[in-house]
Amino acid sequence: EAGVAQSPRYKIIEKRQSVAFWCNPISGHATLYWYQQILGQGPKLLIQFQNNGVVDDSQLPKDRFSAERLKGVDSTLKIQPAKLEDSAVYLCASGLLALEQFFGPGTRLTVL
Amino acid sequence: EDQVTQSPEALRLQEGESSSLNCSYTVSGLRGLFWYRQDPGKGPEFLFTLYSAGEEKEKERLKATLTKKESFLHITAPKPEDSATYLCAVQHNNAGNMLTFGGGTRLMVKP
Known about the structure:
The structure holds two protein chains of two kinds.
Chain A: E1 5-7, E2 10-13, E3 19-24, E4 31-37, E5 44-50, E6 53-56, E7 65-68, E8 75-79, E9 88-95, E10 101-103, E11 107-111
Chain B: E1 3-7, E2 10-14, E3 19-26, E4 30-38, E5 45-50, E6 56-59, E7 62-66, E8 70-75, E9 84-92, E10 99-101, E11 105-110
């Protein structure tokens, strides 16, 4: 069974630029999550989708971050404009309802 | 607000030296406590889910236990390939499927 796919794996941008990340969840998983993991810390949930609807985006900085999940499958996370403190690994995870979540390899973002 | 604290932050062991990692949590209504392993440059890999106090689960050299306030991940006779960051997370029973993670314990096992 294929795992969660993410791209790109690495991205370096300058502050105030825009960036987008893509995630393809495990087939059949209705729930999709985006997490931010700053170096040395545990992941922090940014947004949770159930099919193509948002379940929880309370920790998403909505002035600069946006996410969508069209057709209930793939998802994109965008940052516009980026700040230095956005440097982190962005993890996508998928799962079935309340069961365990399966994580992708992440996208490492460096903002200069 | 749910809180998860892991200790120690880092742990160095010799191969074969057993030890335990701690995860203390504060949550009003625990649905589940999750343990993940994370290798450098990779996403977290699921290990265990514990649902109620007194529950134990085992996988190879790892055993996870749960009380009402904390969880332990016991590592018996570790090998160098057990070196990784171990993350615990709690799921609140009124917060959808949201996981609140601790900061992790970086385990290094020397041969």
